[in-house]
């Protein structure tokens, strides 16, 4: 029997995390959620969701500098519940699935071990800014699916990983190692990264801090052109900023450059804007592909070691 488990790490998302967890609880057998040191009411929102849904489990606070590898740590805290045939979802705190994951995963070929998402990212536009300026209370009080209409289908990354006979998710890894057989279709989801001026400022502050700490290795996609150029020149990114230094207007999008869901209710797919899916050879079993990929890494590591040894010998 197929089971779906979700892993979610969240920080300062009290305006949305409760809705995300409740929505995901409809298709997930278990959702394991941890807080990353929130300073708002995120923990309270999580605990409220836990009271309403028995399949949501709160793992507590992982108050440490954020890296993607925290998900590997979360998985290893609950790995005892996982069995071959289960699916694991990396659930972000600002996303809702358009396609039902349970129906979608039931239809993928048995040898598939990972599924990529097709993110329909809804933006805070110039029109939304006018609405918010006119009546911020009404704007923020409107449910997300009605608050925002302008989006682009412009991002894709792994969202589900299958527990296989070769399943290996180390404690310091963002994902299981060597996922080798990707589904040829993407599962669709809605994301709401920017939802209100206050939330946008809070989000930018958090990501600027991570950018500064990781020298731009994490969240580099939020940099503007000037910051990107500075990063490339190794000048660095801005130091963490305070609320009055971060301007939420920098994320406002021109609605005319986006697709409009309200016009016909149809999600427009944009394969041209998303990274290509990894190709797979259906003639080679996934378990064999896994060992081939591992051997490639081993060869690279061996070659690197031999190069280092030769350099040492030259020096002596």
In sequence order, what are the helices and strands, one letter per element? Answer: EHEHEHEEHEHHHEEHHEHH
- What oligomeric assembly is this protein in? single chain
- The total domain count is 2
Q: How many helices? A: 11
Shape: globular
CATH architecture label name of the largest domain: Alpha-Beta Complex
Percent helix, as a range, is 25-40%
In what range is the share of β-strand residues? 15-25%
Enter the CATH topology name of the largest domain. Answer: Spore Coat Polysaccharide Biosynthesis Protein SpsA, Chain A
In round numbers, the mean pLDDT is 84
What is the CA–CA distance across the termini?
61 Å
Major sheet: 9 strands, mixed
Spatial extent as radius of gyration: 21 Å
CATH class of the largest domain: Alpha Beta
Description:
The chain folds into two domains: 4-197 and 265-292, Spore Coat Polysaccharide Biosynthesis Protein SpsA, Chain A; 198-251, no CATH class. 36% of the residues lie in helices and 17% in strands. The protein has eleven helices and nine strands. Strands 1, 2, 3, 4, 5, 6, 7, 8 and 9 form a nine-stranded mixed beta sheet that branches. Helix 1 (17-24) packs parallel to helix 2. The chain starts with a strand and ends with a helix.
Gist?
This protein has 316 residues and is an alpha/beta fold. The protein has two domains: 222 residues, Alpha-Beta Complex (Spore Coat Polysaccharide Biosynthesis Protein SpsA, Chain A); 54 residues, no CATH class. It is 36% helix and 17% strand.
Give me the secondary-structure topology.
Elements: E1 4-10, H1 17-24, E2 30-35, H2 42-52, E3 56-61, H3 70-78, E4 87-90, E5 95-97, H4 101-107, E6 114-122, H5 126-134, H6 136-141, H7 144-147, E7 150-162, E8 187-191, H8 197-213, H9 225-232, E9 259-260, H10 261-264, H11 286-315
Parallel strand pairs: 1-2, 1-4, 2-3, 6-8
Antiparallel strand pairs: 4-7, 5-8, 6-7, 7-9
Helix pairs in contact: 1-2
């Amino acid at each position: 029997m197929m089971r779906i488990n979700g892993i979610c790490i969240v920080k300062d998302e009290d305006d949305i995390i409760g809705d995300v967890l409740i929505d995901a609880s409809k298709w997930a057998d278990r959702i394991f959620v941890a807080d990353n040191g929130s300073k708002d009411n995120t923990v309270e929102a999580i605990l409220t969701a836990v009271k309403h849904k028995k399949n949501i489990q709160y793992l507590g606070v992982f108050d440490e500098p954020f890296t993607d590898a925290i998900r590997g740590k979360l998985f290893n805290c609950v790995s005892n519940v996982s069995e071959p045939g289960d699916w694991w979802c990396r659930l972000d705190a600002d996303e809702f699935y358009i396609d039902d994951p349970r129906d979608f995963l039931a239809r993928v070929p048995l040898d598939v071990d990972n599924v990529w998402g097709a993110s329909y990212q809804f933006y805070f536009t110039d029109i939304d800014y006018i609405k918010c300026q006119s009546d911020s209370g009404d704007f923020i009080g409107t449910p997300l699916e009605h608050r925002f209409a302008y989006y682009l289908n412009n991002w894709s990354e792994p969202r589900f990983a299958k527990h296989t006979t070769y399943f290996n998710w180390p404690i310091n890894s963002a994902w299981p190692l060597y996922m080798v057989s990707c589904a040829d279709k993407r599962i669709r989801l809605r994301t709401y990264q920017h939802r209100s001026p206050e939330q946008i400022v809070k989000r930018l502050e958090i990501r600027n801090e991570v950018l500064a700490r990781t020298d731009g290795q994490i969240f580099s996609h939020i940099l503007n052109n000037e910051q990107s150029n500075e990063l490339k020149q190794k000048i660095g990114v801005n130091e963490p900023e305070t609320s009055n230094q971060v301007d939420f207007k920098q994320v406002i999008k021109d609605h005319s450059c986006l697709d409009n869901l309200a016009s016909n209710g149809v999600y427009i797919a944009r394969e041209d804007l998303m990274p290509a899916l990894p190709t797979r050879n259906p003639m080679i079993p996934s378990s064999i592909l896994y060992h081939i990929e591992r051997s490639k890494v081993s060869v690279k590591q061996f070659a690197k070691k031999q190069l280092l040894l030769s350099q040492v010998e030259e020096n002596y």
